[in-house]
Amino acid sequence: MTHMDYKYSLLGSEVDDYRKRPLLLQVDDTPGEPVCDLGGETGAAEAVEHAGLPQPHPSLQLRVRPGRHVPHHGLVHPDGGQEGPPPHPVPFPLQQPAVERSRRFKVLVNSEPHMFSVIPRQFQPGVKNPCWYEEYTGNITSDPYRKNMYARYSRRFRTEFQFLRNTFREHLIHHDGKLYRMRCLPYFYIIGQPKCGTTDLYDRLKLRPDVRFTTFKEPHWWTRKRFGISRISKGFQDGYPVEDYLDLFDQSAYQIQGNLTAKGSGSPSHPNMIIGEASASTMWDNNAWVYFYDNTTEGEPPFLVQDFIHALQPDGRFIVMLRDPVERLYSDYLYFGITNKSAEDFHEKVSESLQLFEGCLTEYTMRSCVYNITLNNAMPVRLRIGLYILYLLDWLTVFSREQILVLRLEDHASNRKYTMHKVFDFLNLGPLTKEIESEITRNPASNTRKPADKNLGPMLPITKEILRDFYTPFNEELAKVLRNDSFLWNNNSTL
């Protein structure tokens, strides 16, 4: 029997519960519709007071239908017979005991002491973007970027860094016999997901005069570069220190510094300028955890990227762009595939990936499998990236719902003006001239499918059916959390 002779069916499997990190999740076991309350409130002052520790987010209710099954993908033959274990109901998700907060923060600091020593707890007043002045103790006649790993290993940054070298000294501030430079972190992050329109959103936001980005779209510092990861398959290199990451914002910092100085003369050009960062790996890629953090949680990461970001920026804002996970996976395959791409090849890779994922679930928790680097390197397609609800719930353990804007590519493609205004409102940006707004919403979409990939046509109907069955329960939970049924993707979009 070949891969084309069967399909997967959405059944249940006897899997350990989806073991969440502290989510403040309480399940009412009364018959009917159990209600999960994600309760508690916090503000910026409390976040600072608690030293950047994860805070409960504003009250949110998540309704979970009784008997929710974690998907099992038993093989179904044309005659209807099934191979594999029978279905077993598993609640989704369940609470994991909370970790003591002060200990948690100490472990974060101990794992990244240099990063926490470089970035302060409080930022420059009078500036919307998180910035601060850092004493510069280097030789002003030497190259301040000579050790920057981004500049060293990427040709495309050389021109940018040459400009920064030429203008570095003129932006130093003299105060009490010392030299200071302005440093900034992003005000907001576009954190995911890949092949969901993040490049198009980035390109449109760049057209605003009050929004700046890093010198390039995706530094991947939080997820990869700080660990020395280019690709796991290539092993580890020297990690990029946090200073290298901050250097990427220097040109924007100069403009913010200029606006701050201009306030004294009453003529700042863009007094509320903000910086963004758009690494689409930030939401989901935690591959490095097993190599750098003590594996004491039965195969689950004790800390994720968002824990560190929250410890440094409890008031950060995050934008997530999603699309139908079935179509996302096919787009991902076409974009990153190298040779012999076809609908039939995609079907075989999907089948193999689902079998590997199922095999993991027979021995480990859902969360362990999602963050299992060995499994994810073995799967020929990136199945897990479409499990949006699992990643979103992990982000909601540390950031409030109000700090995360979740958009759909389908809505953006059909009405760019509407989605862009949602983004502008979320970022508290001011009004635009009609000319700039027209340019932002009129430009053609970025990073669309290549003609050669379009010629391959759509995926096979049987592949779409398999993937639809696999992703449906995760989409249902996502729609409940977001209180928006459009995230069910029932219309079978072909974007």
From TrEMBL:
SUPFAM superfamilies: P-loop containing nucleoside triphosphate hydrolases (SSF52540). GO terms for molecular function: N-acetylgalactosamine 4-sulfate 6-O-sulfotransferase activity. Residues 189-451 form the Sulfotransferase domain. InterPro entries: CS_Sulfotransferase, P-loop_NTPase, Sulfotransferase_dom. Keywords: Transferase. Belongs to the sulfotransferase 1 family. This is Sulfotransferase.
